[in-house]
Recover the amino acids of this structure.
């Protein structure tokens, strides 16, 4: 899934949740401190992404959590590690159970993340992504 496909999918989840809780784009914009519904419309259409700093605000306003907005669903690490995850959910770029089990660095990362907030995890993921991008651009 490329970034545009991800943004479109996230936008659909925002729209679905907004409609599920029964609020308009205008109401959601007002709840989140936007001047008008245009920002919400652009997010829902996949033209803009939710700023990382606002992800928890969106989740709270939509009575959900960041994992739903990100498309992680309710899949726990246990579900993934135990092999009970739907294989269609994971594409080739995702880690296998064996890679998670056998790689010390991955285990350390998961152990460290245990008990972290969604915001902490998003911040850590953004940092890792930036570092990867910096290495690739050298």
């Amino acid at each position: 899934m490329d970034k545009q496909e991800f943004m479109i999918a996230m936008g659909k989840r925002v729209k679905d949740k907004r409609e599920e809780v029964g609020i308009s784009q205008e109401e959601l914009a007002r709840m989140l401190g936007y001047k008008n519904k245009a920002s919400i419309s652009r997010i829902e259409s996949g033209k803009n992404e939710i700023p990382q700093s606002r992800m928890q605000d969106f989740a709270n306003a939509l009575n959900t959590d960041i994992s739903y907005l990100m498309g992680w669903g309710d899949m726990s690490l246990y579900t993934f590690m135990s092999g009970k995850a739907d294989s269609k959910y994971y594409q080739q770029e995702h880690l296998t159970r064996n890679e998670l089990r056998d790689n010390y660095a991955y285990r350390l990362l998961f152990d460290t993340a245990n008990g972290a907030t969604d915001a902490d995890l998003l911040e850590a993921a953004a940092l890792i992504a930036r570092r990867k991008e910096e290495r690739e651009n050298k």
Summary: Residues 3-21 form the longest helix (19 residues). The chain has a mean pLDDT of 79. The chain is about 60% helix and 0% strand. The CA atoms of residues 18 and 62 lie 6 Å apart.
